[in-house]
Amino acid sequence: MFQFRIQSHTRAKIPGNHVIVEAIKTLLEASFVQCFNDRLSAVKLSTTRISIMSKKDLLKAKLSQLQCQFTWAPQKEDIDLDDMKQRLEDLIASGVKYQAMSYNQLAFINYLQGNCKEAIQNLQEAEKILRENHEDEFEKRVLVTYGNRAWVNYHMRQLTEAQSYLDKLERICQQFPDASRYTAMIPEVYGEKGWSLLRSTRKYYEEAKECFEKALEEDPDDTEWNVGYATVLFRLEGFSYTPEVASSSPSVKQLRRVLELDPDDSVVMVLLALKLQEFNQKDEAFTLVERALHKSPDLPYVIRYAAKFLRREGAVDKSIELLKKALEITPNSAFLHHQIGLCYKNKLMALTKNPRSRDPRHPAFRQKAELINQCKYYFEKAFEHRPLTFVVAQLDFARVCAINEEYLTAEAMYNNLLQLDGIHRDNKQAVYFQAGLFELHHKKSESNAITHFLAGLKIKTDSKEGTFCRKNLRTLATKRIGRNQKDSKAFGLLGLLHQLDGEKREAIECFEKALQLDCDNEEYLSALCELRLSIKGDSDAPSQN
């Protein structure tokens, strides 16, 4: 096979040369053959690996087209995994509706935590529930579950199994005219996506709202999507100003729509009661709460919202009683711990108005100390597993520390929250506002308070906290001018507030005064030029008459 030549004059000089030559020839041939075979095996192995990788990459490209938790927005960096898992397990344990969707989302959380076997079990349970409860429309509702199953199998390197679920999805999608190969954007998919986003973090609430709207476009009478839409409207209104009358509230209208479709939905009853309470429609609100508690006395979601309603009405002890009952069912609920903390905070704020609570010899003093401990315990339990998402509970904890003159602890809490990255801008604004109040009332620093209020106002002007920041800034600016008519910063601040309110001439007057006192200030000069150009543009605009 291989020929090797030895020069003849060499053979003549070496005794027994033919033996040596044959030995060398054999060794060289064997070595070369082995080397060749090794290289050939390496090439085959490399080719096999390339083939496997190509198959895996092709499969992943197909999976990326699916609509399921693995392709929707919230990822590991956006959610608190332990907290989300606890909330989903509480949802399932409490027996609320739409269990299959909860299992789907729980499967995704388990995957993110590296628990793929548990994820498979969750998805099997979701499929079982869908077969039992939605036999007539099983294939419509199982699209998300099968998509999740394909992804989990892919990550477990079970590529054949993953492909089998893609094949199932392809077969199901053939019955929908507008579907792609593996995905059908039908109400069931939009609706489940809406619920998944709604249960993640508030940064996805607007997208969740859009999903429910799309689901309702095609199926306006579906109870599940109507409940989801009502819930997201309820929450979004909670982060902004509520309309002045109930008739102009989108969430009130939608909650009533749900009760038309399902008059026995006790969770929606208490949500509607909370909204009507804001509009001082107390009689109907109380009736709804009583009906809900009578119908679902052991459902945690009914108990928690009913307790919130009662706390707002001043029935704090009854509220605590209900919340602790719910806590027995879902002992790790951050919401319940926070609500109990708020009840004890209400008691604390009422007691601090009693002058005797400052006298160590009086029982009110000991009672105040006990209430402070209760507040701190429940607030801390609320945020211990949600440091990024439950900012409100941390602010409540810091405020109680300030009341108790634990200023270093409170200041550390505010500083930590101010430095947090990734929290929602509404939460960030609330932190600036509360930190400003702390600087103003406890550290007696107007300048630091103004800095925080301004930072908060710049985030968002049409929110509750934005309005509170603005009111405090106006009060501080007016007070400082009253003390010192040459305070350029106070005039500049007042000018900014007039400008934000659209009061251009008043703003110009303030900025002119500020520039007289601080003639080189570029910020005031820029604002003044912008305002003058704006007024000139208004006067030059053609008349509409």
Can you tell me about this structure?
- The chain is an all-alpha fold.
- Among the domains are: 8-63; 76-226, Serine Threonine Protein Phosphatase 5, Tetratricopeptide repeat, CATH 1.25.40; 244-332, Alpha Horseshoe (Serine Threonine Protein Phosphatase 5, Tetratricopeptide repeat).
- 74% of the residues lie in helices and 0% in strands.
- It has 26 helices and no strands.
- It has helices spanning 8-13, 17-63, 81-93, 99-112, 116-133, 138-141, 143-155, 159-173, 187-198, 205-218, 223-238, 250-261, 266-278, 282-295, 300-312, 316-329, 334-352, 363-383, 391-403, 407-419, 425-441, 446-459, 464-483, 488-500, 504-517, 522-540.
- Helix 2 (17-63) packs parallel to helix 8.
- It starts with 7 loop residues before the first helix and ends in a 5-residue tail after the last helix.
- Mean pLDDT is 88; it is low at 1-15.
